Predict the structure.
Amino acid sequence: MGRLNVLKIMGLGLIVLVLLNSTTLGAQKKVVIKMATIAPDGSAWMQVFNELNADLMAKTDNRVSFRIYPGGVLGDEKDMLRKMYIGQIHGAALLAPGLSTLMKDVNVTQVPFLFETYDEVDYVLTKMDVFFKKGFEDKGYVLMGWSEGGFVRMMSTVPINTLSDLKKAKVWTWEDAPIAQAIFDEANISAIPLSIPDVLLGLQTDMIQVVYAPPAGAISLQWFVRTKFMTDVPLMYLAGGIVIKREVLNAIPKADLQLMTESIDRYMTKMKDVIRKQNHEAIAVMEKHGVKILKPAREEIEKFKSLSNAAMQRLGNNVLSKDVLNEVYGHLEAYRKEKK
């Protein structure tokens, strides 16, 4: 075979390789991850998440992106979980009640009066991160990162300074929230279950008089507009997280998945910083809009704590693992000793 013919064949081979490579690249599907959240459009959570999405699209040259359904347009968290299960969406940004439906041990983060500071929260979640992630993996989901709601306080249309005040009021409870339900049962309170999207209407119609949420959440959901009082006692910490079906992530090339993980890590840290700042400022904002801030006496706070402790003792391991709770107590004890 002459040299010229060899060169022609080599040239033809290179052209074929280039064409095949171009076809492969052109055929590579863009991955659009459909996600839902109850966070309203325009909220701090959505603002930061939109930044995350823009960052991810830029870094992957639009190969990977999120399509987010905010504000509970797909329903409450139980509706999102059902849609995720049947494949209508691929993931969700859930708060602790929703997360605990997938992995019950997340309930430990909702134990009332467990955490005293955000530093304690960060310490414990870091220590428990591998444990929680494995729990979600075992169910076919990946916990991509922790977000949060913050420390929860009561807001009401009637003043709540004492446990007796609470027992006389019409109290809301989130549907399918066993920790909250256990507390209300212990107090002999017949709480009224409503989904998050229905709470504002419940306040408007006087169906409910008492709600509970982090201050910034109460503002973004517009609950504070329909309440007159806020009881300034941090009742519990409300964790949150982003979960995505493992099979969806398996379809993403490793390099892009790494970029996605890095973006989520960075922006979830930013999100927590923003939300904590907003929660700090939100109380003053509500006060400026006419909400009266109530400061219960120390003995009344102790009554709330005793009631909560009794309720937690009654919960079975199917809701709250005592072993996991004891592990968290151990981490908290170690942290508090170190800080003394």
